[in-house]
Design a protein that fits this description.
The structure holds two protein chains of two kinds. By secondary structure, chain A is of the alpha+beta class. Chain A has helices at about 5-20, 40-50, 115-120; strands spanning about 25-35, 60-65, 70-75, 80, 95-100, 105-110. Chain A is built from three helices and six strands. In chain A, strand 3 and strand 4 form a beta hairpin. In chain A, helix 1 packs across helix 2 (about 40-50). Chain B is globular, with a radius of gyration of 17 Å. The N and C termini of chain B lie far apart (about 55 Å). Classes of the chains: A alpha+beta, B alpha/beta.
Amino acid sequence: MHETAVAQSIFDTIIEQSAKLKGAKPLRAVISCGQFNTLNDEVMTFAFEAAAEGTICQGMRLEIKHIPLSAECQMCQKQFTFDIHSPVCPACQSEQIHFQPDAPLLLEEIEFEDIKDQGLS
Amino acid sequence: MKVNLNTKILDKNEQAAIQNRAFLAHHKLDCLNLISSPGSGKTTILCRTVADLKGKLRLGVIEGDIKTDYDARRIRAAGAAAIQIETEGACHLSAQQVSWAINQLPVSEIDMIFIENVGNLVCPSAFDLGESGRVVVLSVPEGDDKPAKYPGTFAQSDVILINKMDLIGHLNFNLERVLADIHALNPNADVFQLSATTGEGMQQWYNWLLKRVAK
């Protein structure tokens, strides 16, 4: 349930950014995570909705991207996408695998309602 | 209108971790973050380590639990300074909580700090506390499938302690499978089999610790 801490942090950043845009309403946020410190989509969505309830963020869409982890077999040098549930080389079944660094937890972008639109609605 | 950020979500935690790391380097302190399920024996390992290394290694301990200061009291009774953090529900320690606790420890009288994280094999591994090494404890009664089921935690550790080895004869615990799964996820980790209750295997862990502070 580290998703609750992640959700609160995303929420705080969205509120900060919204304030910079004169209170523009946020519509969508895109986050990404790696394979080791991964996020559960369902729990993440629930935690974010709980944080957003009753605020300007209520009703926002949260998109969660899972970044694959690249790996190289030390025995046959095959490069492949590491599957955490089957941690062997898909070509030679070796367990001698070298990983690239895992992707960090990132808040990639936030989409806000256009400020000029607010005047029209 | 899109705002591109690409900021680290746990940035506040990471900033605090960077500050902790600088503080620890300034005071020439080694710092290990202990992660495991509840009941794996982290506190028992620490109590025995404190008692057995008395006069060789001066330890300070930061204890993380959802509730109570039971563990800090056990550590103090074993003979080391201990600061308790009660997370009041949070499933992991944050670097900010550790910053507070480090400042409560008598750092000039300590060589190494242990941070005993909240018992949980998932969440603590996502939070850098500013430590210089990670210790994962797996106890035999938990079962031999834990490295496979919690790969992120085992992949991001420097040393793995397989505790309660004195019970292995009573349980269906396939040690070969555990060692193979750990090796696949993290070929560089040191793995020590021990029992903090009987003391078997503890010496290799002590040697590992003493080698770190000798550097």
